[in-house]
UniProtKB/TrEMBL annotation:
All residue ranges annotated as the Nucleotidyl transferase domain in the record: 13-241
Keyword Transferase: yes
Protein name: UTP--glucose-1-phosphate uridylyltransferase
CDD domains for the chain: UGPase_prokaryotic
EC number(s) per entry: 2.7.7.9
Entry annotated with the keyword Nucleotidyltransferase: yes
Catalytic activity from the UniProt record: alpha-D-glucose 1-phosphate + UTP + H(+) = UDP-alpha-D-glucose + diphosphate
Organism encoding this protein: Roseicyclus mahoneyensis
């Protein structure tokens, strides 16, 4: 069955300053959670949702992302020559092929905000609604974008999760007007509200399915917080015209834009890895004894 959402946009131009010096030479999207880079989880999620075209809005200093994402024939040949056929096949399975896959790289030369990054993809999107995936919002378990596409009926849709009242000032918050299971009807969004003025506790996280009108709204959007073009502001502007909804996803979300979130995600995946689970068991068994040598 063909997905109604044919394009996914990956805004990957950010400098990852919270992870410096690790991100001085390595883009934050290539930082691994256990043994898989963040960007790979995002690509897999988009492909699982039936997306046809993948658009990476990058920065000229982050060419390593394209090298990781695209197939490396020479590297695979070298691995096979060394008898590492399984590893070569795994790399081929994970990589995007310039002939078989519809992939676009475009540049955001200046850090003018998430909304501006999405606008940079405008000339490359396929007709219809578009998805936006923020790779550092890692969602494990049920594929979030697949759930959103399955529940999408038009307009703008955002992924949401319920947070504690004291946490609402850290997120964009949905103004909820009705509920139908996991689907929330809304009439607007408020960016990082004071807890006393928040319209709900439904926080927006880094997955969006947006009506194509978002590009017209972004093109005329005045700068918001930090002097940047905010995607949240443009979504809120268009809500009255095209509609707005939220999807309470069923997966487990980790904020891998922070060191704490990255560590939580790594420990979560380590629990199901036999080699790592043994290390965790050692650490739990003795909080004072040094770990065994590997």
């Amino acid at each position: 069955m063909t997905s109604p959402v044919r394009t996914a946009i990956f805004p990957v131009a950010g400098l990852g300053t919270r992870f410096l010096p690790a991100t001085k030479a390595t883009p934050k999207e290539l930082l691994p959670v256990l043994d898989t880079p963040l960007i790979q989880y995002a690509i897999d999620e988009a492909q699982a949702a039936g997306v046809e075209r993948l658009i990476f809005v990058s920065h000229p200093s982050k060419s390593a992302i394209e090298r990781h994402v695209m197939d490396d024939v020479r590297l695979r040949a070298d691995l096979r020559a060394r008898g590492k056929d399984d590893l070569a096949q795994a790399l081929q399975d994970a990589a995007l092929c310039p002939e078989a896959d519809d992939v676009v790289f475009t540049m955001q030369d200046q850090p003018l905000g998430l909304g501006h990054a999405v606008l940079c993809a405008r000339d490359h999107v396929l007709p219809g609604p578009v998805a936006v995936i923020l790779p550092d919002d890692l969602i494990l378990g049920a594929p979030c974008l697949s759930e959103m596409v399955a529940g999408y009926t038009g307009g703008h849709m955002v992924a949401t999760m319920t947070v504690a009242a004291e946490e609402v000032s850290k997120y964009g918050i949905l103004s909820v007007t009705g509920r139908d299971g996991a689907l929330l009807r809304a009439d607007g969004m408020v960016e990082k509200p004071d807890p006393k003025a928040a319209p709900s506790c439904e926080a927006v996280v880094g997955r969006y399915v947006l009506d194509a009108s978002i590009f017209d709204d972004l093109a005329t959007q005045a700068p918001g917080a930090g002097g940047e073009i905010q995607l949240t502001d443009a979504i809120a502007r268009g809500a009255a015209a095209v509609g707005l909804s939220g999807m309470r996803f069923s997966g487990l979300r980790f904020d891998c834009g922070s060191k704490g979130g990255m560590l939580r995600a790594t420990l979560h995946l380590a629990e199901s890895d036999p080699e790592c689970a043994a290390v965790l068991a050692d650490l739990r068994g003795s909080s004072t004894a040094p770990p065994r040598a590997a």
